[in-house]
Automatic annotation (TrEMBL):
Compartment(s) where it occurs, according to its Swiss-Prot or TrEMBL record: Membrane
Organism: Enteractinococcus helveticum
Protein name per its UniProtKB record: Peptidase S54 rhomboid domain-containing protein
Keywords, in A-Z order: Hydrolase, Membrane, Transmembrane, Transmembrane helix
Membrane topology term: Multi-pass membrane protein
Domain of life: Bacteria
MF GO annotations: serine-type endopeptidase activity
SUPFAM superfamilies: Rhomboid-like (SSF144091)
Keyword Nucleotide-binding recorded: no
Organism taxonomic ancestry: Bacteria, Bacillati, Actinomycetota, Actinomycetes, Micrococcales
Length: 273
């Protein structure tokens, strides 16, 4: 998607003391460790999902980690008081990115393939910490969009929202490097078309993840552009702080939206479904 030499040249332009910590192989090539860890963790969770289906008394991992808007509603609190069952579980907005469809292993395969293809490039450009931040925020943003746009009793699984956030980050990085982003744009359009054409796909999560990816990658790319011409160490530190402040602001907005969305699902909607 991006010119490898362009990304490496960009890394060389950053002062050594300001470069994100990286693991390297014996040849000195950067190892995108965060990308590999996310892929490995997701695959392990998928294995646990299958274990829950074939091993007696093993927990149903899919049911424990998937997300439904009802899990983050005020109505869930009221329902818990009536039944005594803990239904309000906001952490599912993130854990749902770890579980995938049991009926179609292709769901996991495609998400992990895209993550492997583009995650390594984004991590090399942004560094592991900012890459992971954008990935998590995009997963969260996808769940927030599901909360607002999907049926209260719908259930979603998969890392697609986070992956669409990486699509957005890749597009932003391409623009920052002056690369030809037409191929990335076409890829995004095709994937969005599939989201609306085929049933059983959460276009809401895809849209939310993509918009969040745009918002989260904006302060990172703007900071990189500001420092491209060279800056003092103090300016670099201040810019880095502002970058993380921008990422934190995106997180605060998502939390606020999740809170508002929780108020929009009433008790009758919960009990009715």
């Amino acid at each position: 998607m991006l010119c490898v030499d362009c990304v490496r040249q960009h890394q060389r332009s950053i002062p050594r003391e300001q470069r994100a910590p990286r693991f390297t192989d014996r040849q000195g090539n950067a190892i995108p460790l965060a990308t590999y860890i996310i892929i490995g963790l997701t695959v392990v969770v998928y294995g646990l999902q299958w274990a829950g289906q074939v091993i007696p008394s093993f927990p149903d991992v899919s049911s424990l980690l998937m997300y439904s808007p009802l899990h983050t509603s005020v109505a869930a609190l009221e329902f818990s008081q009536v039944t005594g069952q803990p239904l309000f579980q906001p952490w599912r907005m993130l854990t749902s990115a770890l579980v995938h469809s049991m009926g179609s292993p292709l769901h996991l395969l495609l998400n992990m393939a895209v993550l492997w293809l583009i995650g390594r490039q984004i991590e090399q450009f942004l560094g592991a910490a900012k890459f992971v931040a954008i990935y998590i925020l995009s997963a969260f943003g996808g769940a927030v969009a599901v909360l607002f746009l999907a049926e209260p009793n719908s259930a979603v699984v998969g890392a697609s929202g986070a992956v669409y956030g990486l699509f957005a980050a890749l597009w932003m990085i391409g623009r920052r490097l002056g690369a030809d982003t037409r191929s990335i744009t076409i890829l995004i359009i095709i994937n969005f078309a599939f989201s609306f054409i085929f049933s059983g796909i959460s276009w809401q999560g895809h849209l939310g993840g993509f918009l969040t990816g745009l918002a989260a990658s904006t302060p990172v790319v703007l900071a990189d552009k500001k420092l491209a011409a060279g800056a003092t160490p103090e300016l670099r530190k201040r810019t880095n702080r502002l970058t993380w402040l921008g990422l934190a602001l995106v997180a605060v907005v998502l939390v606020a939206l999740a809170f508002i969305g929780a108020l929009l699902i009433d008790t009758q909607a919960l009990l009715g479904h």
